[in-house]
Write a structure and sequence with these properties.
The two termini are 22 Å apart. The chain has 216 residues and is α/β, with parallel strands linked by helices. Strands 3-2-1-4-5-6-10-8-11 form a nine-stranded mixed beta sheet, with helices on both faces. The chain has a two-stranded parallel sheet with strand order 7-9. The longest helix is centred in the middle third of the chain and has 22 residues. Helix 1 packs across helix 6 and helix 3 crosses helix 4. Helix 1 links the parallel strand 1 and strand 2.
Length: 216
């Protein structure tokens, strides 16, 4: 497969690039900073330098041309300010989906956030609420598109070594999950038709990843 990952220098994305490239897939990581090209290359991927806050759908579609899977794993990140929660977590996600439609890339994975489904009930103006509302808007935008989409909402992320066992379901309840295991699940979701059209939650559990994907 040819897989294009938005947010290619993210901690999950780099892990995912290593997994996919080790299995013989071609991985392109979309990054804003050209200084990140070397890290993507070291993980076995190829960098495409493009600012998703400034680019248009046509430019992004060129990067996606010929891809089998598009994965949106970008995020403004902590300390980025409220405005960028909207321009990245919502706006860039919608742009990436626009570009996927233009390029004819049907399989589309989007990394969401646990708790996004309660965003509309929140009335405060905290940064976390703004973040959840941006993630929810990105999910709603994707669900309305004619793409073979899957939204994956991981629990609280840790840098502990992956266990290879998870709890993956439409609803899991709150929990934590290693970035290693999130990457492993994303790699499997690239070719899991049963996940199409579903919003899935992911936390640590006792089920091997392969079995968790088969159980879908």
């Amino acid at each position: 497969m040819r897989v294009v990952i938005a947010g290619g220098h993210g901690q999950i994305a780099l892990r995912l690039t290593r997994l996919l490239s080790a299995d013989g897939h071609q991985v392109v990581g979309v990054v804003r900073n050209p200084d990140h090209e070397a890290d993507i290359a070291a993980a076995g991927g190829q960098a495409a330098v493009l600012d998703l806050e400034q680019a248009d759908a046509g430019a992004v579609a060129e990067v996606l041309s010929g891809a089998d899977v598009a994965i949106f794993a970008a995020g403004a990140g902590p300390g980025s300010g409220n405005a960028r929660k909207d321009t990245v977590d919502r706006g860039a996600a919608a742009l990436f989906a626009d570009a996927a439609e233009r390029a004819g890339v049907r399989r589309h994975l989007q990394v969401g956030s646990m708790g996004a489904d309660r965003a509309e009930s929140l009335t405060d103006d905290s940064t976390f609420t703004i973040y959840l509302k941006a993630k929810w808007a990105a999910e709603e935008d994707l669900r309305a598109r004619d793409l073979d989409w899957t939204v994956l909402r991981p629990g609280g992320l840790t840098d502990d070594p992956g266990t290879g066992t998870v709890y993956l379901a439409d609803k899991t309840g709150n929990g934590r999950i290693t970035r290693d295991d999130v990457a492993l699940v994303l790699a499997g979701l690239c070719d899991t038709p049963a996940a199409i059209g579903r919003t899935l939650e992911l936390v640590a559990g006792d089920t091997p990843v392969r079995e968790a994907l088969e159980n879908l």
